[in-house]
């Protein structure tokens, strides 16, 4: 197997004096989607922020074998770690085109690729981003990360709060994006995990409690229920597939 694009080892992070990431170790293969799963508040977002140096952390983080854990965030981003944050963070008062232009870091941004994957954004380039739907804002956020020649994308809950039809559209876009760059994906919707992910890393209480192939994990209903508090994605009812429901919200 080729070298992982991202290797996290013994990662620890604290927020406001509380340890939110504890001795976390996992790898992200150089192709495909790796899903970072867990109930609400287990430290998924904090793990991503710790990798990026957005919160204080200790531990070993390697990008294609090179240590990046002592670098400030902007250097890590320059090295090719793209971040699509949970709240999308589009500039509401700027147009779609302006939002995209601001994100261009490389001398030769991949505009054709973005236009091919997000034709709707081309149609809406003069529209102010604040007037877009949640799904469209998510596309802007993904497109911004894709403009640059990133080596890995960290994508945090891209389908959160979106209507089911739009969830499908965002998942399709992610699938196309994943053909061009490996992704570490925080995702609560297990249908989306099933569709996209080859591997899963499951957190509980800031620690890794399971890693392995995605299909194997999702097929193990008892394990899914124990670790996520929901039933697997092949269970009968749709509303049992999102870990923000049921005990997952505890
Ligand atoms: N700014 C903050 N101040 C204090 N505590 C925080 C802050 N951000 C996160 N936490 C705490 O850190 C822990 C981990 O939060 P984190 O957002 O990483 O979890 P998560 O798994 O991403 O959750 P969710 O699924 O709800 O997004 C939680 O206990 C949370 O309450």
Question: Could you characterize the architecture of this molecule?
Answer:
It comes from Agromyces rhizosphaerae. By secondary structure, this protein is an alpha/beta fold. It has a single domain, classed as P-loop containing nucleotide triphosphate hydrolases (Rossmann fold). Helix content is 34%, strand content 25%. A hairpin with a 2-residue loop joins strand 9 (197-204) and strand 10. It is globular, with a radius of gyration of 17 Å. Residues 236-250 have low confidence and may be disordered. Residues 15-16, 20, 38, 40-46 line the site of adenosine-5'-triphosphate.
* Count of DSSP H/I helices: 10
- Give the helix/strand class: alpha/beta
- Within the largest sheet, what's the order of strands? 6-7-8-3-9-10
Gap from first CA to last CA: 39 Å
Task: Return the average pLDDT rounded to an integer.
Answer: 89
Supply Rg: 17 Å
Low-confidence stretches: 236-250
Name the hetero compounds present. Answer: adenosine-5'-triphosphate
- Beta-strand percentage range: 25-35%
How is the main sheet built?
A: 6 strands, mixed
Number of strands: 10
Tell me the series of helices and strands, N- to C-terminal: EEEHEEHEHHHHEHEHEEHH
Throw out a few tags for this protein:
single chain; 250 residues; alpha/beta; Rossmann fold; six-stranded mixed sheet; four-stranded antiparallel sheet; 10 helices; 25% strand; disordered C terminus; binds adenosine-5'-triphosphate
């Amino acid at each position: 197997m080729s070298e992982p694009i991202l290797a996290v080892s013994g990662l620890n992070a604290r927020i406001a004096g509380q340890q939110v990431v504890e001795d976390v170790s996992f790898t992200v293969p150089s192709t495909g989607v790796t899903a970072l799963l867990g109930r609400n508040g287990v430290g998924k977002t904090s793990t991503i922020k710790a990798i990026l140096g957005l919160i204080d952390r200790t531990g070993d983080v390697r990008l294609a074998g090179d240590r990046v854990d002592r670098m400030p965030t902007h250097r890590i981003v320059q090295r090719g770690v793209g971040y699509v944050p949970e709240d999308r963070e589009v500039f509401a008062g700027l147009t779609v085109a302006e939002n995209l232009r601001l994100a261009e870091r490389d001398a030769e941004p991949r505009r054709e690729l973005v236009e091919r994957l997000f034709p709707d954004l081309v149609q809406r380039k003069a529209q102010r981003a604040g007037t877009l739907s949640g799904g469209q804002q998510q596309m802007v956020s993904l497109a911004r990360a894709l403009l640059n020649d990133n080596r890995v994308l960290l994508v945090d809950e891209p389908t959160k709060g979106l209507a089911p039809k739009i969830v499908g559209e965002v998942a399709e876009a992610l699938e196309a994006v994943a053909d061009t760059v490996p992704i570490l994906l925080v995702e609560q919707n297990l249908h989306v995990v099933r569709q996209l992910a080859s591997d899963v890393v499951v957190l509980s209480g800031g620690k890794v409690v399971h890693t392995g192939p995605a299909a194997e994990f999702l097929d193990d209903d008892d394990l899914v229920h124990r670790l996520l508090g929901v039933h697997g994605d092949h269970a009968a009812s749709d509303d049992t597939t999102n870990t923000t429901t049921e005990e997952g919200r505890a």
